[in-house]
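COURSE: Structural Biology Practicum
ASSIGNMENT: Worksheet 4, Part C
STUDENT ID: 0417
INSTRUCTIONS: Below are two proteins. For each, the amino acid sequence is given first, followed by its structure token string. Answer the questions at the end about the second protein only.

PROTEIN I
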Amino acid sequence: MNEQERPSKTRRKKEMHELQVLGERLVELHPEQLAHLALPEDLRDAVLEAGRIPGREARRRHLQYIGRLMRGVDPAPIRDGLEILDGRSREQVARQHAIERWRGRLLAEDGALQEFAAGFAVPE
């Protein structure tokens, strides 16, 4: 590989930082959400372990370790999986907001119950 083909040190550091940030997103996931992602076993174990590390400095070092593990993994499927999970989360938030709006209307308005029932009526 010559100088032209090899990425610069700055570019490599940027890519490594992006992988570490992606690893941090994985650490923030609930184990149930993490199960939906196709991760290598060693990476999954490291991510789950990070959630049990209380010390700030130890956690920082462990996140760097996760970043190193991520170097051997194609990040595209992980990013795709996170986007799907984010979409589900947005849908859940929107659904919860709709429920809260209906609750407010049901408590405040007299005709809201009939309107609610009409919106969910099943044709015979």
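PROTEIN II
(use this one for the questions)
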Amino acid sequence: MPNDSSKPSLATLHEERNRLFLYAKQFFFEYLVATDTRDLEETHQLMRMIKENSQKIEDVEFRIKLLSGK
């Protein structure tokens, strides 16, 4: 029988989603600063980080929907 304690709880998933949203805000602010200073490499790196973080948010939200049955 699988151990259900290894699965994240709904509360844990909500906490993870909130943490990822905070990262998104931070990355976007840093992106705005980078574009203002015209640092192209930093801008591209931050865009990749924003895209990766957005995918993580989508994944967590999908897992929340599955776990909550919505």
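ANSWER KEY EXCERPT:
Q1: The longest helix spans residues 40-68.
Q2: The helical segments are 10-37, 40-68.
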